[in-house]
C-alpha cells in the first residue's frame, strides 16, 4: 500500500470528506483531491500536513527493513517467538496505545 493509499484509507476510516481533510490540514479540497487521484505530485509538506490532520506521524524506515517493520506492525507489535498467554510481555503496540502505563518486565527464563 502506498503512502497516499494509507492517507486515503485513514481519511475514509475517520469519516472525513476531502473538504474536511483540506480544512483540517489548511489545504483546499482541490489539492487533496488532486493528491489522492495522482493528478498532482504533492510536496512533502503537503503530505505531512495531510498526515498530521489525520493524526498520523510519518516515519522513515530504511528500505532494507521495510518488510520486517510492516510484519512487526501487522503482528500487533509482537516479536516472533514471543511466548503467549498471561505471562507474555505486553506488545509494544499495546504499551504505546495505553498512555500512562509502565511496561511490565518480561518474565525471567531461568
Task: List the defining traits of the structure above.
single chain, 110 residues, 434 Repressor (Amino-terminal Domain), 2 domains, 6 helices, 48% helix, elongated, Transcriptional regulator, DNA binding, Lambda_DNA-bd_dom_sf, Cro/C1-type_HTH
Work out the helicity level: 40-55%
- The structural class is mainly alpha
User: Major β-sheet, in short?
Assistant: none
Uncertain stretches: none
- Return Rg in Å: 18 Å
% residues in beta strands: under 5%
End-to-end CA span: 42 Å
Number of domains: 2
| Architecture per CATH nomenclature, i.e. the level-2 architecture of the largest domain | Orthogonal Bundle
Q: What is the CATH C level class of the largest domain, in words?
A: Mainly Alpha
Could you tell me the mean pLDDT? 82
For this structure, the CATH topology of the largest domain is 434 Repressor (Amino-terminal Domain)
* Number of H- or I-type helical stretches: 6
* Overall strand count: 0
InterPro entries: Cro/C1-type_HTH, Lambda_DNA-bd_dom_sf
GO molecular function, one term: DNA binding
Organism: Pandoraea iniqua
Protein name: Transcriptional regulator
Topology readout:
Blueprint: H1 3-13, H2 18-25, H3 29-37, H4 44-53, H5 66-74, H6 92-97
Helix pairs in contact: 2-3, 2-4
What can be said about this structure in brief?
The chain is mostly helical. The protein contains six helices and no strands.
Please tell me about this protein's structure:
This protein has six helices and no strands. It is mainly alpha-helical. The chain has two domains: 3-53, lambda repressor-like DNA-binding domains (434 Repressor (Amino-terminal Domain), Orthogonal Bundle), CATH 1.10.260.40; 63-97, no CATH class. The protein is elongated. It starts with a helix and ends in a 13-residue tail after the last helix.
Amino acid at each position: 500500500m502506498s503512502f497516499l493509499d494509507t492517507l486515503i484509507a485513514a481519511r475514509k476510516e475517520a469519516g472525513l470528506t476531502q473538504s474536511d481533510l483540506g480544512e483540517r490540514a489548511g489545504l483546499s479540497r482541490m489539492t487533496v483531491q488532486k493528491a489522492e487521484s495522482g493528478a498532482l505530485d504533492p510536496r512533502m509538506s503537503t503530505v505531512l500536513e495531510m498526515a498530521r490532520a489525520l493524526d498520523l506521524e510519518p516515519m522513515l524506515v530504511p528500505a532494507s527493513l521495510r518488510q520486517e517493520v510492516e510484519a512487526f506492525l501487522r503482528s500487533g507489535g509482537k516479536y516472533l517467538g514471543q511466548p503467549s498467554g498471561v505471562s507474555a510481555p505486553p506488545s509494544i503496540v499495546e504499551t504505546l496505545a495505553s498512555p500512562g502505563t509502565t511496561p511490565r518486565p518480561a518474565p525471567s527464563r531461568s
